[in-house]
Design goal:
The protein is an all-beta fold. It contains one helix and 16 strands. The protein starts with a strand and ends with a strand. 23% of the residues are buried.
Length: 188
């Protein structure tokens, strides 16, 4: 069993008899009825995507997914082409299949990436929690502002727009948390 608090991007669970994989956490909403966690999920069997609200205390049956080590070879339009590290077979996944994880990977990366399979069918990708990316554009940094509390938008080398502290500049290498896309620290 997996509780709502343990659900992350890439988690798979059964809901109303269907297997789902989480593509994005959309946030939480509290009220008189308790806390509701909003998720963007993909039905593993049909491939359809939907937004789902689940109560914070709910528990679900966990879906077992198999994993295989791969490397991202190249990106062909909206398709990400991976190579199996053992058999050297090519595997294509769409940006929609990858969900938010598509924002964090590039063919130049040397991170360990795993493709997750459900009953032999590729359904998603598993990344390290922290990855290093380069800022390709952001407004100039403010000298002396090292608190990190105020954030500004910055475009990363993958095209993803992250929120970074004011002291970050273009060409800085930063560490991003792949679970929620948040800034962790500057890379050393």
């Amino acid at each position: 069993m997996i509780s709502t608090n343990e659900i992350r991007v890439g988690s798979a669970f059964m809901f109303e008899g269907n297997p789902f994989i989480v593509q994005k956490k959309l946030g939480q909403k509290g009220g008189r009825q308790g806390i509701t966690v909003n998720l963007r999920v993909k039905n593993i069997v049909t491939g359809s995507t939907q937004d789902l609200g689940v109560d914070a205390g709910d528990k679900f049956d966990e879906v077992t997914l198999d994993e295989k080590a791969v490397a991202l070879s190249y990106i062909d339009g909206d398709e990400f082409v991976f190579m199996d590290q053992e058999t050297y077979d090519e595997l294509r996944l769409t940006r929609e299949d990858l969900g938010d994880n598509a924002n964090y990977i590039s063919p130049e990366d040397e991170y360990e990436i795993s493709i997750t399979y459900y009953e032999g069918k590729p359904v998603g990708v598993k990344l390290p929690i922290k990855i290093t990316r380069t800022i390709t554009y952001c407004e100039p940094g403010v000298k002396g502002d090292t608190s990190g509390k105020s954030l500004k938008p910055a475009t990363l080398d993958t095209g993803f727009e992250a929120r970074v502290p004011l002291y970050c500049n273009t060409d800085d290498k930063i560490i991003i948390d792949t679970r929620d896309g948040s800034f962790v620290e500057r890379a050393k």
